[in-house]
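**Discrete fold encoding**
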Amino acid sequence: MRRERGDLGAVVKQILLDEEARQPLADQAPEFGKIKEPLIRGIQMIRAFGIYEPNTHKPQWYDYVFNQSPLSSPSVFNFFSDSFTPAGELNEMGLVAPELEIINDTYMVRNSNHAAWWSMWTPSTQEIDAGHERAMTIDFTPFISMLQNDPAELLDYLDLVLLSGGMNDTMREAILDYDQVAKEWLSDVERVKEMTFMVTGSPQFAVQR
């Protein structure tokens, strides 16, 4: 069948059925995937759980945390060069990692602190309702039932919404083993928060595959 120029259906089909994109992670080449932009990484976490805000409020300090801000790219080519490659193993393999051009030691720490803030340090919904200066939080209480039913069920959810189902067995076992110990001194909601940070603060979360 001869395809006509401008066949949008054929384009969509090619994208969705691409063999490389549909392969399980275990079958993909080690170099498959890319680093997520810091801002995208932060927004992904917030979207996975939803923001609790009784009053209209907007997140602030994008540049401080992510070294980038919406609609603030210095050029039409984004915040980084598409040919950037960091010194070291990626450079030696002839691979590029454009997103790493805006990541240095300082922003690695700030990215991690941002993940820790949204997962473990945000004020409670009661504090927000009482007028806490932050004005926004994540309400983790709806996820307690998953934890109480089976910690693995909560971890499956975190794997799905944060890692697209790519959590490996080593990471899964480490988080579940930690939770078994931590439940002796943490409340259920604190356990949910800790497990969330163990995912959002991980190198695996920083990579989109």
Observations:
- The first helix runs from residue 8 to 16.
- The chain has a mean pLDDT of 87.
